[in-house]
Predict the 3D structure of the following.
Amino acid sequence: MIHASLDCRGRVLELDRPRIAGIVNLTSDSFSDGGRWLDRDAAIAHALRLVDEGADLLDFGAESTRPGAAAVAADEQIARVVPVIEAVAARTSVPLSIDTSHPDVMRAAVTAGVGMINDVRALRADGALDAAAELGTVVCLMHMQGEPRTMQRDPHYDDVVGAVHRFLTDRLFACQLAGIERKRVIVDPGFGFGKTLEHNLALLRECARFAEIAPVLVGLSRKSMIGALTGRDDPLARVAGSVTAAVIAVQRGAAIVRVHDVAETRDALAVQVAIGNAVALRKAQAPRGPWDDD
């Protein structure tokens, strides 16, 4: 792990154990829960419930980025998300994140209480890099091939792991040139964003490669790759597969998992951490031989 904590504008997210980001979609067309939390009071209650279930971070979004999704204007995103962020920020101390690529939405969300920008375009939109540098937040840089409306039309890579690694390294360098400190940057390989099932599996197997450059956030929850692997067409039926994928991602170096099903993921990671701690303790207490100093 590159560093031990993320300072989200005064709300610190320690990375001493796997952390869970709970998803709060204020959208009408997200692939899994579109429309469920459009009502302001329902969204606030959902966010606070995720904290009670064990979320260490809340990620708010007002524009779907599923394949084929339509764009949502910045003023509409702001109208949807800012009142909810303000209310939640006043009632919980966990760090808050905004899932957007638009500089105006970034600024409005940070004013409302957000301390992290989670951008599927890795701050490539006009003005986004400067806005993130100005705002002083943590930023999550995600890889995406193409745009949401077209990204799943025959994605191709000669070497998907190498291509994603180079892209994220280049974007990390761009952040540094813009004045964004390395300790404020995390990365996301972008599962399902311009990738086939085989691409996604390769990225999951090699997740540790990305942890070499920055802490890794992964978003696998309820995605079509889970449906393809389990035969579950209904995203709401993909909980077990999603939790398993989150555990595997953490085993392979992920620091944060972004999920819909917080309580189930929390329980699975608690077991994983306990087993890992027990193994480490047993190794530390094992008798040392004369060869151990070699």
Q: What stands out?
A: The chain has a mean pLDDT of 91. The chain has ten helices and ten strands. The two ends are 26 Å apart (CA to CA). Strands lie at 5-8, 11-14, 19-25, 57-61, 96-99, 116-119, 138-142, 185-188, 217-218, 256-259.
